[in-house]
Amino acid sequence: MSHHQPPHQLPAPCIIDTGTIVNKQDMGRLLTDLGRVRYIHTLDGKLQNEGEGCVLEVFADPNRSTIIANRALYLNVQSFDYLQLNQSPEQETYFDLIQDNRQLRLIPLSNPYQEQSNQQLNADALETMVAQVLSAKWDVQIDDEGECPF
Question: Highest taxon of the source (predicted)?
């Protein structure tokens, strides 16, 4: 009886706050949560465009384009070779999408943790309102049942 051991696998990369990401799925996961961003597009180190917008879609499709127009960003991770994750001196994270001599820097203007907290607060507020409406409806039904039709 022989014991065949699988070849030793290296652990998956662990990137915390800074590093280079080449895996397209990892790039997509990072970019999906960005929300509002400031973008700076440079070509050969020269500024081409800059502005603010909202990341509306992140996808991986070799037949579709990355498009930034009308304050909307549609990011195709296939448009870039890698993503460089960096931190400013103020410890704010920013993302450099690199493809040859092109760089698209994305600086988050919204915080996913804050956005999630706000969404939870909105969900809690909505749940409270629904409960109040249902409670009021029950009260009306009870009042109607208690009335005598004569």
Answer: Bacteria
